[in-house]
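User: I'll paste a sequence; please echo it back and then give the predicted structure.

Assistant: Echoing your sequence first, then the prediction.
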Amino acid sequence: MGFTRKAAKQARQLASEVIDRLQALTTLPGGVELSVAYKTIKVEVDQSVVSLVDKDRMRSLLDRIYETIRSYHKASLGMKIAEATVTAEQVALEAHARGEETLVLSLDIGADGKVAKKILEKIKAVYPVASVFIASMDEDEEKIGR
């Protein structure tokens, strides 16, 4: 798309402002704040009418921000899984000591069935005769894992 002189100047100004904000976001650590800012600015980048060169630069910065968010979520999930595994083992040991045969657990592990299966295997190693139900909500994906 071609721009007239005035429109080109406005497009360049818009691109400059958005790129500055994107560069500021690339310095932030991963977390909820960065995730919210990413979702907001991604829409703005997608809708902005700027040169292809500027759009490409914006998308490149968006990709860097996304990788930061992804790394944060991966590390965060790893910590949650480790905590949930310890909690599940403790609950299984306590239930075994009390003679309870049914365990119902709500854990913060997302909706990943593979993770739930690994935790179930840990519980079964501690208390093989127990009937177990594990539930977890993944707010990012808006799913419930069982």
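Strands lie at 102-106, 131-138, 143-145. Residues 41 and 90 are 43 Å apart (CA to CA).
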